[in-house]
Specification:
The chain is an all-alpha fold and 166 residues long. It contains five helices and two strands.
Length: 166
């Protein structure tokens, strides 16, 4: 087996996958939080008493960055990169990279769309603060797909770890 795949070592492919997951998840979270926070800030300017009920709507997109971070850490742990004992071939490292893509891309997009959904749901709280629990349902629906992507990435990495004898 070759140690390189398209001229890149297995460890570097795996690190690239983990990095892409962390970066794209973080980008999605940052954009989503910004979108939701802009709307929430306007509402709080008018009625500061609603801050506590609106904060979860602005914070919800932050989970996508957390999921990307989890994927990156799991790459380091599952494939012994932290201990310096990684023995991934180029093709194996590329497989790890591919396993990171579901959480990377889904978390980027769901973070953004969760922010948009949270901003829209903030309008519910602005008009009817007693319905803040109902308002949380809409961004939570988007969250479901971010969670699914993390589960898929973890299952794929677990299968790869077992396949590689890690």
């Amino acid at each position: 087996m070759s140690d390189l795949f398209w001229g890149v070592s297995g460890i570097n492919w795996a690190l690239f996958g983990g990095g892409v997951a962390a970066v794209l998840g973080g980008i999605g979270s940052a954009i989503g939080i910004t979108i939701a926070s802009a709307t929430v800030s306007g509402i709080v300017t008018e009625d500061g008493e609603k801050f506590g009920k609106l904060l979860p709507l602005a914070a919800m997109p932050s989970t996508q960055g957390i999921y990307g971070f989890i994927a990156a850490v799991l790459v380091l742990i599952f494939f012994n990169i932290l201990g310096g004992e990684a023995t991934l071939t180029g093709a194996q490292g590329f497989a790890v990279f591919l396993a990171c893509l579901p959480v990377a891309f889904l978390c980027m997009f769901t973070g953004i769309y969760q922010g948009k959904t949270g901003a829209a749901a903030a309008g519910i709280v602005a008009r009817r603060s007693e319905d803040s629990g109902k308002a949380l349902i809409f961004p939570a629906l988007v969250e479901t797909y971010a969670v699914f992507s993390l589960i898929v990435t973890v299952l794929m990495m677990t299968a790869l770890q077992a396949t590689f004898g890690g």
